[in-house]
Design goal:
142 residues; two-stranded antiparallel sheet; 2 strands; 4 helices; mainly alpha
Length: 142
């Protein structure tokens, strides 16, 4: 496998860990490869944020007695679109004027994290919709 973790596929990340490569080593190398001036990224993880995520990853692996097959996304990095809430990260929807820091993860993010950290529980998330209109209500006259 290449030393360029940014080009790994899901299967290659999983194989790298089965072969004994370290998530800390690979993920820190990946973080260093990503450029902060690349317009593809609104925000990149800091070294401290990554270390906190790695600590949680270690705890999750210990929680399943080291059985990586129970953590199918163990150590696999993922990006989150800037209009999807991820706790502690800016949600901007490409409009910095309306940016806010999410307090809880969107359901999809919570599910992704659980595949890496199955002990994490979903947190309740308020439903957002336009006042006076239920998001699932049928449109009259349409």
């Amino acid at each position: 496998m290449s030393n360029a973790p940014i080009a790994f596929t899901l299967a290659q990340w999983q194989q790298a860990y089965r072969d004994g490569q370290s998530p800390a080593e690979l993920l820190h190398a990946l973080r260093l490869e990503l450029r902060t001036d690349d317009s593809a990224w609104i925000a990149l993880t800091s070294e401290a944020q990554l270390d906190a995520q790695l600590d949680a990853l270690t705890t999750a692996l210990q929680g399943v007695d080291g059985d990586m097959s129970k953590l199918p996304l163990y150590g696999v990095p993922f990006a989150i679109k800037d209009n999807i809430d991820a706790a502690g990260w800016p949600t901007t929807a490409a409009c910095p004027e309306f940016a806010y820091s999410a307090e809880v993860d969107a359901t999809v993010v919570a599910r992704l994290r659980r595949r890496r950290h199955p002990d994490r529980q979903d947190q309740p998330r308020p439903v957002r919709h336009r006042p006076g209109r239920h998001p699932f209500a049928s449109r009259r006259g349409a």
